[in-house]
Amino acid sequence: MTAPTPEGRDFRRDEVIAGEYVLGVLSADDRRKVEARLASDRNFAAMVDRWQSNLSSFDEAYDLVVPPPRAFSAIERRLFETSQPEPIQPRRGLWNSLAVWRGLALASLAALVVMGASMAGLFKEPSAGTPLIAELTGKGSAVDLVARYDRASGRLKVTPVAARQAEQKSLELWLINGSNPAISLGVLPQSGEGEIAVPSAFQARISAGSVLAVSVEPLGGSPTGSATGPIIALGKARSL
Amino acid sequence: MIDEDLAGLLGRVSLGDRDAFAELYRQTSPKLFGICLRILGNRGEAEEALQEIYVKIWQRAGRYSQGQAAATSWLAAIARNQAIDLIRARKPAANVIDEAYDLADPAADPENSAVVRAEGRRIDACMEELEKDRAEAVRSAYVEGLSYQELADIFAVPLNTMRTWLRRSLLKLRECMER
């Protein structure tokens, strides 16, 4: 874009390019170049932000036009309907939208939390020996967490399950090595009980660099043997 | 649109709150749809663009930080960018970034622009310092999402003249805003 000059970057030219981008006069190719630079050059990104806010008073020129009701239904369908079959593709957008899941390591998919005795008070008056279950839900999330507390051992186990929807769904765990087809490792138990026992044939295939992914599937798992629902989480295995 | 409310709604949307998303849509979609219609000039395309825009808003709400920009201008920028990307795909424009051009203007000191600082001046006062047709070209470029070629045709000047107009105008605006 702008070649560094002996005295440093050509700031006036950068200001012009940032302004041209915000005005919208650039070609599609040039817009992609600007966006690539936005991601790596904070000073340049600040120039674009400043033009954006400087020129935003021109937004007053736009009329208010109420869109037809079908527009919002279409948006909700696209964002929140998980029943449509979709190809197994890392869906960065959906992943980002699940704020709750951001930063959650796959290793914690079936996290064992050993709780102190003081926490036991959270669960009221259980009849002795019966495990307690709490369902943790979040609005708009494709997953719920089921917490299962065993009073005898003081262990609290937290497992993700597919969120309650009109149709019951399951979460299925997949193993992907390189460009090989995804292998199903099994369905996460809906009850919050138990863990996935990896079939012995696949145990040797899980190593650092393997990708684990979770998809939303019809209750009981994918009917086809490959993922049919959206991928809601995905990550590469690494050694701790 | 009341910005404080919108910032709060965006915060809730970033946590996956669908009710907040519906309310945000109710409050902001007439403006963003107006932007799409003005730039694309076609209802069907504007509706499609609006879908993409709200999908992006849902996905990017967490990146909005209060104080960085007014919520209204952050939302309008997403809408304008989407509409302009669509129209540039439909009607390709010439690439200009890599070509050499001369911005020489002895009055301006390059080092002045080295640090990006905020400024309090309103753009309107600075627009009045531009020659009338140039200010009009800047405003139509922004509002209508026009390319250099379309602007040159409308203002009946050669393409290179239009480029020089807008680039010099941008530098003058920058210099005026920092005064």
Fold topology:
The complex is a heterodimer of chains A (240) and B (179).
Chain A lengths: L10 H13 L4 H13 L1 H14 L13 H12 L11 H6 L13 E4 L17 E5 L6 E8 L4 E8 L6 E8 L6 E5 L12 H4 L7 E8 L12 E6 L4
Antiparallel strand pairs in A: 1-4, 2-3, 3-4, 5-6, 5-7, 7-8
Helix pairs in contact in A: 1-3, 2-3
Chain B lengths: L2 H12 L3 H23 L2 H18 L10 H20 L32 H5 L4 H13 L3 H8 L3 H20 L1
Fill in the CATH topology of the largest domain in chain B: Rna Polymerase Sigma Factor, Chain: A
Largest interface comes to: A-B, 66 and 75 residues
User: Helicity of chain B, in percent?
Assistant: 55-70%
Spatial gap, N to C terminus of chain B: 30 Å
Order of helices and strands of chain A: HHHHHEEEEEEHEE
SSE series of chain B: HHHHHHHH
Beta-strand portion of chain B reads under 5%
Summed over residues and divided by their number, the pLDDT of chain A gives a mean of 72
How many domains of chain B, as an integer?
A: 2
Strand content of chain A: 15-25%
Major pleated sheet of chain A: 4 strands, antiparallel
Based on CA inertia axes, which overall geometry of chain A fits? Answer: elongated
Number of helical segments of chain A? Answer: 6
Major pleated sheet of chain B: none
Span of the ends, CA to CA of chain A? 41 Å
Please provide the count of β strands of chain A: 8
Strands of the largest sheet of chain A, in order across it?
A: 1-4-3-2
* Rg from alpha-carbon coordinates of chain A: 25 Å
Q: What class do helices, strands and sheet pairing of chain B give? A: mainly alpha
Tell me what the structure shows.
The complex is a heterodimer of chains A (240) and B (179). Helix content of chain A is 26%, strand content 22%. Chain A is α+β, with helices and mostly antiparallel strands and 240 residues long. In chain A, α1 (11-23) crosses α3 and α2 (28-40) packs across α3 (42-55). Chain A is elongated, with a radius of gyration of 25 Å. By secondary structure, chain B is mainly α. Chain B has 2 domains: 3-90, Rna Polymerase Sigma Factor, Chain: A; 110-178, Winged helix-like DNA-binding domain superfamily/Winged helix DNA-binding domain (Arc Repressor Mutant, subunit A). Mean pLDDT of chain B is 86; it is low at 104-118. The chains are: A alpha+beta (240), B mainly alpha (179). Chains A and B meet through α1, α2, α3, α4 and α5 of A and α2, α3, α4, α6 and α8 of B.
